[in-house]
Amino acid sequence: MDISYDDGRTWLPALVHPSGKGAWSAETWHPVSARGKFASLRVTAADTGGNAFSETVIRAYEIK
């Protein structure tokens, strides 16, 4: 998973951890300079059968 603070122009990796059977959680951090901006999220996943997907959400949430 990746996170962007400039509407997807640049991306930073987020830490991803298993959180149960077939579930995952992402750990993000927000620099002080991101306050008042929006976070965009991008995730890509694949299984061992060769199936894959990618999803991008621009301005997923505002950083207060």
Descriptive notes:
This protein has strands spanning 2-4, 12-13, 15-20, 23-27, 38-46, 52-62. With 64 residues, the chain is mainly β. The chain has one domain. Strand 1 and strand 2 (12-13) form a beta hairpin.
Query: Using only CA atoms, what is the Rg?
Result: 13 Å
Report the sheet with the most strands, covering strand number, pairing sense and barrel closure. Answer: 4 strands, antiparallel
How many separate structural domains?
1
User: In terms of per-residue confidence, which ranges show pLDDT below 50 for 5 or more consecutive residues?
Assistant: none
Strand order of the largest sheet: 2-1-5-6
Shape: globular
How would you summarize what this structure contains?
By secondary structure, this protein is an all-beta fold.
What topology emerges from the helices and strands here?
Layout: E1 2-4, E2 12-13, E3 15-20, E4 23-27, E5 38-46, E6 52-62
Antiparallel strand pairs: 1-2, 1-5, 3-4, 5-6
List descriptors:
single chain; 64 residues; mainly beta; four-stranded antiparallel β-sheet; two-stranded antiparallel sheet
